[in-house]
Amino acid sequence: MPNISRRRLIKTLAAGSTSLMFSPNSLLAATRPKKTKLGIALVGLGYYSTDLLGPALQQTKHCYLAGIVTGTPGKAVAWKQKYNIPEKNIYNYENFDQVANNPDIDVIYVVLPPSMHREYTIRAANAGKHVFCEKPMAMTPDECLAMIDACKKNKRSLAIGYRLHHEPHTIEYRRIVNKKLLGKVTKLNCAAGYRDNRTNHWKQTKALGGGVLYDMGVYAIQGARLGTGMEPLEIVSATTSTTRPEIYKDGLDETTIARLRFPGDVMADIKTSFGENVNFLDIDCEKGSINMAPYSGYSGLKGKSPLGEIRFPYELPWQQAKQMDDDCMSIMQNKAMLVPGEEGLRDIRIVEAIYKSANSGKSVKLNTVSDTH
Ligand code: NAD
């Protein structure tokens, strides 16, 4: 909602226009003077907010930590002291919607268990705020579509927290693939996993968004999609398994493997696991292979190809700072998000198809044509 003048806005509101497609809050926000730095509020102060996003927001140039939303009063006190957050910018899950009246906060960053992403993204958009939402975007394609719709309706931006799209190693292997510098991709193999020894975290609780395919599997799916530069046509086969049935029960997957067929009959084998540390992406091309290992961590990424070494060292939490700076710059410049909701939706459609294939023992065709209903 970029260049609407205050006079035109008042006229529209006074006319009681029934054609308003977005909330009054987003209209009012659009009339305020342009900011040079956006205020971000983190929702959910668990591991990722505490260890990565909070520290990253001390390094960002185009945004800063303006507020927090937490259900734990003790965390509110600790974060307030550590980061000097004003009391008026601290919310809990009940009074969260009042953020609509807070001009300090431009962006809500949803860092909650996946089952809560839909609700908090929609509440944030309806409060007139831009939204960054962590991966996996949501539990089902319908939830993703509802989130995309809510942001569109309110004319707010929606970005998914796929930090690797902003990251130089990923940008470099994508450049080699997309420019066909080693010819066409012929085959791909990707694995994303770590040993998770927790027993009752949300990652081990189906209703909260648990299961390895949602959590780490989206990295392997991203590896396959970005590494081939194509969209999969079919899940040829998939298997879910566990070596710890006392933890991974009720259909929860500890390990999932799948074969994805891409255009040109290019096959990608992916593996994701909470049982072992695995982190690599091998892209076979006509004139040689790109081998990235690790390909998806927070730092220390590296790889090689016949074109040379792929190595751009940086310290943590540079990735997260870069991602938030990029996305805030895009918002301030009225540009599309580098990783919009539609990108998260693509992966959740694939997640759904992989589970369907694993449960039925059959191949599952993917409909890649539409990002809408
Ligand atoms: P976490 O369990 O450490 O934190 C979750 C937070 O949600 C906690 O503060 C918890 O109190 C809060 N919460 C509110 N209601 C809850 C409920 N009903 N059940 C459980 N927790 C509840 O998880 P995390 O590792 O910080 O992950 C949060 C999100 O960030 C997830 O979507 C995860 O996939 C994502 N994440 C992304 C990356 C990345 O590299 N992009 C890395 C880690 C996590």
In short:
The chain is α/β, with parallel strands linked by helices and 373 residues long. Helices cover 33% and strands 21% of the residues.
* Unreliably modeled segments: 1-22
Tally of discrete structural domains: 2
**Class computed from helices, strands and strand pairing:** alpha/beta
CATH class annotation of the largest domain:
Alpha Beta
CATH topology name of the largest domain: Dihydrodipicolinate Reductase, domain 2
Determine Rg (CA atoms, Å). Answer: 21 Å
How many strands, which pairing sense, and closed or not: the largest β-sheet? 9 strands, mixed
Bound compounds = nicotinamide-adenine-dinucleotide
Strand order in space, largest sheet: 14-13-12-11-7-10-9-8-15
Descriptive account of the structure:
With 373 residues, the chain is α/β, with parallel strands linked by helices. The protein has 2 domains: 6-160, Rossmann fold (3-Layer(aba) Sandwich), CATH 3.40.50; 164-315 and 339-365, Dihydrodipicolinate Reductase, domain 2. The protein is built from 10 helices and 15 strands. It has helices at residues 6-14, 24-31, 47-56, 73-83, 117-126, 141-153, 168-178, 212-228, 318-332, 341-360, and strands spanning 38-43, 63-69, 90-91, 107-110, 130-133, 158-160, 185-193, 234-241, 255-262, 266-273, 278-285, 288-292, 303-305, 308-310, 364-365. A 9-stranded mixed sheet has the order 14-13-12-11-7-10-9-8-15. A 6-stranded parallel sheet has the order 3-2-1-4-5-6, with helices on both faces. The radius of gyration is 21 Å and the shape is globular. The two termini are 24 Å apart. Nicotinamide-adenine-dinucleotide is lined by residues 44-48, 71, 111-114, 134-135, 161, 163, 202, 208, 215.
